[in-house]
Design goal:
By secondary structure, this protein is an alpha/beta fold. It folds into 3 domains: 11-79, no CATH class; 140-218, no CATH class; 222-318, no CATH class. It is built from 8 helices and 8 strands; from the N terminus they run αααααββαββββααββ. The two termini are 45 Å apart. The mean pLDDT is 91.
Length: 320
Amino acid sequence: MSRFVDIDLARLPAIDAVKALDYEGNLADRMARFTEAARAVGIEYDASALETDPAVILMQVEAYFDILLKQRVNDAAKSVRLAYASGHDLEHIAAEFGVARFDGESDASLRRRRQLAVEALSTAGPEGAYLFFALAAHPNVGDAAIYGPQSGLCAPGQVLVVTASKDGNGVPVPAVLDAVANSLDARTIKYADYTSRTRQVTRQQAIRPLTDWVIIEAANDYPFTIDAVLQVPYGPDMEVVRRTALTRLGAYLDSRRKVGMKISDSAIAAALHVTDTSGAAIVDDVNLYLSATDANGDIDPGPKGIARAAGINVEVEVLS
């Protein structure tokens, strides 16, 4: 079952305004230009002959500060793009759409809410708008999946908002669900302990379309475990390989901490295949075992679940 997914900013190409930095190339250009200028006035001067030559030192200093300046230009170009902005720069970009940072909110969370803000220019009828308002309802809302009648999960005229928390196993506490319900003027709230309540709608809600019967439901925890043995040739530091693999794996799992998102066994294997700085494979093979997999070998939490790695065990085996 598909759900609304906003554009993955990390997959956008690098912006053209950001230029590659090349200190050695910059220095070589300066040296060549200096030599050419000296020869033009009748001075045969090899500016690269001696490292201690004052002219060489001057060119090195100028090339260094030129690189700093170009880096500053690159940083400035990134600071005004949503995909790259951070800190106060990101807060200014978010403020353009009336989005303010929650206390302690990460840049990634604020960036996502700002990206979804354009969806909220309508009422909460579109999936993206419902998602924006759900994420803005409480600082601990980590994700929400929006389902209409076509999903088979709710009746005609109803909208189901499955809500997950940033904390713990992703299952939201009642206060978080109540906040989302108040924001969306929901009729029904279904808590994690399987109790539910019906709230009185205001009928004056500026966000919820008047005909939508909104249901707020807690996401289900869907724990699984990962056991992997990385096979590496003799030579690389096993602990470094293991730590690098865990970091890559953690980044992938974090990207999938959303309601209804599957965890792919092939993507986990790819994350564990550590490479060196040149892109050459260090890990020859990965013996992988995942608990709670579906027929395709993936982790499928279902439309209301949020997959959570309850246990990760990664070992390294040196090939003989």
